Amino acid sequence: MKKIINAVDTVVTDALTGLAAAHPELRVDLDTRVVYRANAPRPGKVGLVSGGGSGHEPLHAGFVGYGMLDAACPGEIFTSPVPDQIVEATTAVGGGAGVLHIVKNYTGDVLNFEMAAELCADEGVEVARVLVDDDVAVRDSLYTAGRRGTGATLFVEKIAGALAEEGAPLAEVAAIGNEVNARSRSFGVALSSCTTPAAGKPTFELAEGEVELGIGIHGEPGRSRAPAGTARELVRVAMDALQAHLPLSGDTLVLVNGMGGTPLIELYIAFAEVDAYLREHGATAARSLVGNYVTSLDMQGFSVSVCTLTDELTRLWDAPVRTPGLRWGP
Amino acid sequence: MNTAFITDWIDEITRLVAAEREHLTALDAAIGDADHGANLDRGFAAVRTALSARPPGTPGDALVLLGGTLIRKVGGASGPLFGTFFRQAGKTLGDSPEVSPAELAAALADGLAAVRALGSAEEGDKTMVDALTPAVRALEQAVQDGAGRRKAFDAAARAAEEGARATVPLRARKGRASYLGERSMGHLDPGALSSALIMRALHISASGSR
Question: Quick check: B115 and B129 in contact, CB under 8 A?
C-alpha cells in the first residue's frame, strides 16, 4: 500500500488538520471531530448537520458553508460518526429553529444518528431527519438493509441547505430534502477496488478486463461482475438501471461522480454518454456536475445520480453556495 | 462473581479482539467494508482507558461503562449494537456487588433482546444475533442444569462458535452484507465471530488459564 499518510491511526485527524489550515472560514474541532461553519449557529435558521464515515471527501466536511451544511461529523474511514459527535454538532448549530440531520441509509449511520437525535431531544433541540436512499443497485426489500445513500446526498444537502438559508422552517426544509431524495436515483460502476488504510490491500479483487456493477461507496462489492466495456456500454448499464426505477423525463439534474481514482477526462466521456442517453429518453441534463464529489478513497470508477427537477428545485440548486467542495453564485 | 471478574473478562475480550483484529477485518472485507477488527480493537482500547480513569464499583457498573464506551467510541453499526448488548446487561445486573452465573445469564439475555430490538435482526439474518442467541440459550440451560460456571461458560462459548460457523452458508438480510444478496453466502459473518470471541473470553477468564 502506498498512500500519502503519516500513520494509519491518524488519517482522519491529519486530514481535518489540513482542512482547517486550508479553510479558515471553517471551524474544525479536532477533539470532538466536528467541522462547523465559522458563524454557526445563526439565530432563527434551521441547522443542517450531516456526517458519515470518512473516505468520501469532499462529502461531508467539504460541503460545510454558506448555502449548505452548518456542521459535519466525520467518522473513521467508512465508519459512521459516534453519537457524541452528532450531539455536539447538533446542539452547537441549533439556532432555535431546529436541526435537520441528513443521514445516508446504512445501518451504522442510522443507528448512531438515531441515538444522537434522542439525546438531543432530551436537551430540548428539535431534530428532523432526511434519510437518503438513492442507490438502485440494492433491492429495497425485507431482505436487505434497504437502498444505500450515495450521490443524491449532495443534492439533498445543497437544495435543503439553500432553503434553510432563506429562513424556511424545519418542517419545510425536511420536506424538500425528502422530495429531492424521492426524485433521485444513483448507480455506480467500479474498475478497481479501493484500499482502506487499515486493511492495506484492496477490499476486493477485480481481474483485468472486469468491472463491478452496482457498487456502493465503501468498497463493498457490487451486484455483479461483467466484462469491462466501452464508456457507452457502462453508462448504458447504469442508465438502464436508473430508468427502471425513475422514469427519466424533462429537466434533470445530473451528477457524473468520480469514485476518487478516475481521471476527469474519463468522467467527461461518461457525461457525454449520459447526456446522449437522456436525450434519447426525452430528458434534458438541465443542470450538471462532473467531478469527484462522493468518493470511495482511491477507487476507480464512476456513479451517475439523477434528480428530476421542478422549478423550485432548480431555483434552489442555482442559489449561491460557498463551501470548500461546491461554490457558485455571488 | 465480583467486579474484578468482570474487568478480567473485559481484559480477555480486549486481548482476543486485538489478536483477531486482522482476521475480523479480512472477514469484513469479504462481505462488508473491511473495518470490523480495527473498530472493535479501537473501542476496547478506549474501554481500557475508561476503566482505569473511573474504576467501576460493581459488575453492573463495569458492563454499563463498557457498553457506553463502545457506543461513544466505535461508530458504525457495531458500536451501538455491541455497546447496547453490554450496557443493557449491566443495567439488568443493577448494583449488586456479586452476581451469580444465573444472574449473568439473565443479564446477557436482556442484552441480546436489546440488540435484536435495536437492529431488528432475527436468528438466521447472518449477524451477531446468530452467535449470541445460541450462546445465551446454552448458558441458561447449563445454569438450569446446575453446571459449574466454567462448564456453563464453556457451553456458551461453544454454542456461540457453532452459531458463528453456521452463518457461513447464510444469505445476509441485515447490515452491509445484505447488499450482496446471494454473494454474501459462503462467508463467515465477522460480527458473529466477534460475538463468539466475547463468549470464549468469558470462559477463559473463569478458567484462569490464559
Answer: yes
